[in-house]
Amino acid sequence: MIEDGTQWSATRTTPEAAPIISLYRYFDTENHRDAFLDGQVWTTTMWYCRQHADESRADTGEGTLSYSHDPISGRASDPRIREVARRLHLGIGDPEMEIQLAGNEVGMEVPDAWMLCVSRVYSPLLLAKFGQFCVRIERPASLFVAISEAIEKEMSLWLGGYRRVYYQTREARNLDPIPASPAFVKPVEYEREFEMRFAWLP
User: Fold this and answer.
1) Cα–Cα distance between 173 and 27 in angstroms, integer?
2) Residue among 2, 15, 16, 1 at smallest CA distance from 139
3) CA 12 to chain CA centroid, nearest Å
4) For residues 178 and 139, is the Cβ–Cβ distance under 8 A?
5) What is the DSSP track for 127-141?
6) What is the pLDDT of residues 139-178, one digit of tens each?
7) To 10 degrees, the CA torsion angle through 179, 183, 186, 191?
8) Taking 60 as the threshold, does the pLDDT of residue 14 lie above it?
9) In sequence order, what are the residues at sequence separation of 6 or more whose Cβ sits closer than 8 angstroms to the Cβ of residue 26?
10) What's the half-sphere exposure (Cβ side, CA atoms, 13 Å) at 4?
11) What's the predicted TM-score (pTM) here?
């Protein structure tokens, strides 16, 4: 529970009261919305999102990425070789060595994490999907700090952060850009959610 919800300026919202810079949290009941406004914040987990009973909200690949590549060869000093090797977690020694890489694939996974999923938009589509009650969060950084401090009263956190979700394939190949963390990647089919995600790893 956050002791002082006023620190992060959450308010009830309607479409007319929705400035662009704010974030929005949707709720399926008025009680849940009011509890949030009172500082009682319930987070979800990646595991729960993978197993969600509602198929429209379930994401079995939550928190995962895979990487593979086409056959590649050349000197170890070649920047392309070095980057593919780095992504495969392979060490390279002598820069003059001839290297061939083929048939490799690695997976990245965040086993579990606490999350608070919000949106960058106030949308009738999201009201229909997540619930007809909504809270506007005017100072997201203050909310993140407040939740982090509440968690750390109970246990140590290894890592925490918040950023927008990137909508792209979870199967990177060759020299495709790879996001910093699979915790902030979702398939393109979810892009209309415009999600911003708070995440904490214990």
Assistant:
1) 38
2) 2
3) 25
4) no
5) HHHH-SEEEEES-HH
6) 899 999 999 999 888 888 777 888 899 999 999 999 998 8
7) -90
8) no
9) 119, 126, 127, 129, 130, 131, 133, 134
10) 5
11) 0.76
Write down the residue that tokens 């895979």 correspond to: 66
Yes or no: say if 17 and 136 are a contact pair by the CB < 8 Å rule. yes
Sign of the dihedral through C-alpha 28, 29, 33, 35: negative
CB 58 within 8 A of CB 190: no
Rounded Cα distance between 108 and 89, Å, is 11
d(CA 76, CA 78): 5
Show the tokens assigned to 179. Answer: 């996001």
Q: 93: buried, middle or exposed (CB in 10 Å: 19+, 13-18, 0-12)?
A: exposed
- Which token pair is 42? 């319930």
130, containing H or E segment = helix 124-130
State the amino acid at position 97 in one-letter form: M
Alpha-carbon torsion angle 157, 161, 162, 165, nearest 10? -100
